[in-house]
Amino acid sequence: MLTKFTSQLIADTGISTGDEGKGRVILEIVNELRESTGREDAVAAVMKVNGGSNSGHTVAGLKLNLLPGGVADPHVPYLPIGSGVVADPRKFLWECAYAELHGHVALKRLAIDERCLVSDLSHRLLDLAWEDYRIHALGGDPRGSTGRGITPAYLDEVGQFQVYYADFLGSKDHFAEKLRGRVDRAMRVIEHVCQVGPDRWPRFFETLSGAEARANAEIIEEGKVGAEEFDFGQFAGEAPFTLKTDALIDAYWAAGQKLAAQIFDVRELVLREQDKGNYIIGEFGQAYWLDKRHGFPPNVTASHTFTPEFFQSAGIPAQPIHNIGCCKAYDTKVGTHTFISEIDLDHPLSTKLRKIEFGATTGRQRMVGWYDAVEKGDALRYGGYQDLVLNKLDALSHSGDWQGDLQICTAYEDKQGNVIHHVPRNAKMHKSLKPVYKMLPGWSEDISNVRSFEDLPDNARTYVAWLMQSLIEVANQGDQHKDRLPNLRYIGVGPDPSQIIKDVPATNELLKLI
């Protein structure tokens, strides 16, 4: 249901563990605000709030990591990068080249906050080194890191070794001093703390070069950026655990100078646009259950991934904000997450869904599972959101060997048979739980061309109603005043922007279908 937005500030967040289709929501919000206000310039900015190039969004066919999804709309004048972001300046330039290859003005619309943190090659090497440490020194399982250097970059922030984008507006000597110290610390940690073997050290450069060459194949093939840009071996020193630091400093300083005109005080930009009556959309990476404080280590990211970070990253006072929580009609996870509602690999629905479930950033195969209403309900109870977006409902239609019933995880059960209505914060207990399911009939119709809720098959409408009912029951569990009742704003029935349903009944009416 398209209810009125309650604030000029709008947060686009995930309420699972990422990959919920947050990117597609950006342009829907922009267009809806234009229609409701009658103003082409209603949305002044789409801001990247957190994380770095580890978060992948697909917007209007563009696969983005650092750039906000607003780049796909030519009438959004600003693409701010908040101070809560860690970003490699070379990646900005590569991604801008990619967006502009597809006809979108990118670089001139960037507004990188002065306090945005500069990440660099040393962080990426540290990322791989810590993964190596988990495997070879601790004998554990790999964490499934993206290798983008995000956690090491945030460690420099809390360790008081910040390099800010504002440093690109100062002297090269000052920047070089900071980066030289960072590289020295990183090499010492990699060799002596992470205990990386000298024979494994060259593979780090091969891994990074291969990953970036694949990710940027299009701009290389079109001649927008030379292939040599993605050869990280050019920065490797003659001996193990050394870098050609002067070459690294020159490369990053040159990239920073190309971005210098786009370095802003984002605080002032946001407050000024608010004062004009314009809207600012905050685009979040990852999701509630990947928050470094609220998720389950090591399967978390290094940033804050939910609504309060909007204010910290923009640098403005806390105030009312309209939050949109995104999820799929089923669940997916990557890495080594505890996955209580995971579907058996040989189940026909698992076979079907795994054919379409790969990470936008890493290409990693996602695990798939039944919709976990406990996770979504707790994100509502403890995080809060006014609207829900439900994506990929179309993927559940019967096809091929998949002809069965659907299940919703409505609660958990512990070893003693006790029913658990919330996600426990103790990781060991969390791993021991079993799902409690509600079974519902599936449907055989192809719904990818449906644009009205009333035109969905009866079983699909009932399934949606039960999803809402289940998460609402979790969110209000134990309370006398059952007032957490989110609005279902959009239902996605395909990847294209037009494949969306916007006329979902009010939640009270929707629940009457049960």
From TrEMBL:
IMP binds at D19, E20, G21, K22, N54, S55, G56, H57, T146, Q286, T301, R364. Substrate binds at A360, T361, T362, G363, R364, Q365, R366. One of its GO terms (molecular function) is GTP binding. Its EC number is 6.3.4.4. Pathway: Purine metabolism; AMP biosynthesis via de novo pathway; AMP from IMP: step 1/2. One of its GO terms (cellular component) is cytoplasm. Mg(2+) binds at D19, G56. GTP binds at residues 18-24, 56-58, 366, 392-394, 492-494. The keyword Ligase applies. It catalyses: IMP + L-aspartate + GTP = N(6)-(1,2-dicarboxyethyl)-AMP + GDP + phosphate + 2 H(+). Pfam families: Adenylsucc_synt. The active site is at D19, H57. It comes from the Bacteria. One of its GO terms (biological process) is 'de novo' AMP biosynthetic process. Keywords: Cytoplasm, GTP-binding, Ligase, Magnesium, Metal-binding, Nucleotide-binding, Purine biosynthesis. Its cofactor is Mg(2+). It is found in: Cytoplasm. Homodimer. Plays an important role in the de novo pathway of purine nucleotide biosynthesis. Catalyzes the first committed step in the biosynthesis of AMP from IMP. Belongs to the adenylosuccinate synthetase family. This is Adenylosuccinate synthetase. It comes from Coraliomargarita sinensis.
